[in-house]
Amino acid sequence: MTEVLLNLKYIRRPFKSLSILLLAFFTFQAFSWVFAFEKNVSIVKKLGGPLSYIWILFRGGILPEISTLIIVLMLLNIYHEACQIKRLELTPKKVFKYEVKILPVMLIAFFLFNPVTQTVRYLLVEFPSYNLDLYLENYLQGTYNIKLYFTYLIPVLIMGYGAVNGSLIIDIMEQRRQQKKRTSETPDPFQSLTPQPGAYLTHLKVKSTYGETIIAVQDCFWFETEDRYYYAIHPTGRFAITKTMNELEAELNPEMFFRTKRNCIINLSFVASYSYWENGKYSIRMQTPNNDETDMPRARLQDFKNRLVRFSAQEVEYLPPKSEII
């Protein structure tokens, strides 16, 4: 597995990330008690004991920060959509680059979530005695300062990177689970690539200028039609055949052969690469002596990619015998 599809489970479902919020909150509280122990003890005494202190923390600390979490995750989701970050290549360099790329979101998030979080905190803490001047001075204008920015920075980084990397780990595990499931559903690794007797077409009667012969279909590069005649492209030449494209598509092993368009069926084991060509078409380069290419319409691209992935995922020792053409 070289890349993973990013589903962003924890980012798109904020309430699944509440545990990350609690982790960030308690991390902040731990630092607060380590570096200001005596001050926190006096606050506990002033509030009337541990229970009152815990209630204040819950009402004025945890509940308002739910809005912080939601806004941070919303910004990350918008950023992923805007930058078209859909997949991630699983290499140290690419993962590190991905982590750095999302850092600016966390650095500017404070200026967006702060008024919302402070408003929620004001409504919860000051209930029922609300005062507009107190709200503006202590909860809005007074909270935009360097000290509070850096106070929030560590919890925001924990929430943001916790949700991102938690989602990434789940996506990796889910993709591996699906691959393992597909593998377990095919106990014989040769089954999908090796045509079984009576199941798929294995040999084909062909004609050339020298007469008739029989060739193995797995050695053919591709099959094509031209001027209502049908041909098999083989390492030893181009042979005329009697079977139509529809008949070949029905009789050939679908895990090994793919119909790119109406007049062409290619052997996936000879595909070298594919790329966008022009006018909504893609070019497929084949592993032939002349590096031949064939085109394919965009409508067939997704099916082709899925079939190619399934074919490549067959990690077996057997490969269809190929003539030494390279």
Automatic annotation (TrEMBL):
Keywords, alphabetical: Membrane, Transmembrane, Transmembrane helix
Classification via Pfam families: LytTR
Domain HTH LytTR-type intervals: 214-310
Membrane spanning residue stretches: 52-79, 100-124, 149-172
A molecular function (GO) term: DNA binding
Protein name: LytTR family transcriptional regulator
